[in-house]
Amino acid sequence: MSEVGKPPLPAGWKWVRLSEAIGPKICTFDRRKFPKPTIRYIDISSVDNVSKRIVEARDMPASSAPSRATYFVRTGDILIATVRPNLNAVALVPAAFNRAVASNGFCVLRFKREYAPEFFFQFLISPAFVDAISELVAGAMYPAVNDEDILRFEVPAPSDREQQEAIAAEMFKKLNALALMRSAAAAQQSGVKAFASATYRDVFPCYETGVLPKGWEWRPYRECFATFAAGTAKIPESAYASAGRTPIVDQSQKLIAGYTDSKAARCEPAHPVIVFGDHTCCVKLVDFPFAVGADGTKLLRAREGFNAQFLAHVLRAAPLADHGYNRHFKLVQSLSFPIPATENEQRDVAERLDKTLSSLTVIRAAAARQSDAISALPSAFLREVFTFAA
After folding, report:
1. d(CA 362, CA 356)
2. DSSP 276-330
3. 367: left (phi over 0), alpha (psi -120 to 50) or beta
């Protein structure tokens, strides 16, 4: 937001440098002098960078607060994470967290009376700010900014606080409506997942009862699966393109996560490949040329006498303990799987499951597209308001 080349603003608007809009220095926490036994602590993990809210804070003894516990925050303060600022962990402090203690991993903005913090919050979650702050850390081994980097930003704003508040109120209405839409889309996706889980329980009750259908037997992982060697380099997520010659398959929920034109990364398997997400536990069956994306993507093939289509289903149904974003593949390797005696029987079971679950594939894809569209709308709304800052 340099002085040179600034676009003209509407009548009654002006450029506001953040350093000139904030108030006096914010009080800091000193565990030795703090009179109360406990504090409420907000660190970067407390902020949801999707909803832009403080979703949790830890109550802890003041005497054992971490060394990063630094700033007393008030209602209306804005917290901006200075580490990995491209992720935009930004939140407006609500009344519930008034007088909480925030980590020094945040830049804390407290505005003067003539400025509406709600309006400036909208700018700080807008693409104009996110794109500009991301450029500051592009290529850095430790992507972080300092308070001065943020305070140098200039924001296009109405001169009148009431007008700032009116614009902010209208934007909050839109963003709250989008949050409801996002929740509805997430509920639909959860319903699809629950139906698929119920279908697998019907076909593989032996995972819970231990009792196998006649002619089936438990077979250990090593007898069913083998590692598939793609022999190609993995594509980092930062190199995914929206179009290209070869689709990229990774551990995400989408079958195709992006595209590449790299000939060296293209894999053309002779038989279907089972893809397992080491972090996500997502299972895919890939029977087309593809490139391998990102870390955590495990590639498997069916051993002789086993049907890959069936193994993909039996792996999705397997009772894996959820360890969050930790690795799960070692748990898969320790499992045994319920397997029909012949490959033809395996194929029959797989085809029945495909028929039952095929409608879910369409619904899941539609729900994912809807969710992506909803996720894109906040940026579109904010870009419209702060088009002068682009």
Report:
1. 12
2. EETTT--EEEE-S-BEEBSTTEEEEEEPTT--HHHHHHHHHHS-----TTS--HH
3. alpha
| Domain(s) of CATH 3.90.220.20: residues in the chain | 13-159, 196-346
* Among 316, 362, 307, CA closest to 335: 316
Measured CA to CA, the distance from residue 116 to residue 111 in angstroms comes to: 7
Q: Is residue 311 within 8 Å of 284, Cβ to Cβ?
A: no
pLDDT in tens, 265-299: 999 999 999 999 999 999 999 999 999 997 789 99
Q: How far is CA 114 from the centre of its chain?
A: 36
Question: Which CATH class name applies to 13-159?
Answer: alpha beta
SS3 content of the chain, % helix, strand, coil (to 5): 40, 25, 40
- Surface-to-core class of residue 195, CB atoms within 10 Å of its CB (0-12 exposed, 13-18 middle, 19+ buried): middle
- Give per-residue pLDDT as tens, 168-209: 999 889 888 888 888 888 888 888 888 889 999 999 999 999
Pair of tokens at residue 97: 């967290």
3-state secondary structure of 369: helix
Q: How far is CA 220 from CA 212, 217, 226, 262, 335, in A?
A: 15, 10, 12, 37, 6
Please state which architecture CATH assigns to domain 196-346.
Alpha-Beta Complex (3.90)
Query: What are the distances in angstroms from CA 18 to CA 1, 28, 382?
Result: 11, 21, 18
Beta carbons of 21 and 123 less than 8 angstroms apart: no
In angstroms, what CA-CA distances link 352 with 227, 251, 313, 316, 364? 27, 25, 11, 15, 19
Name the residue among 31, 48, 114, 110 with its Cα closest to residue 74. Answer: 110
> What stretches of the chain show up as alpha helix (H) in DSSP?
18-21, 117-124, 127-137, 147-151, 161-203, 206-209, 221-224, 308-317, 329-333, 343-385
Mean pLDDT (whole number) for 34-54: 94
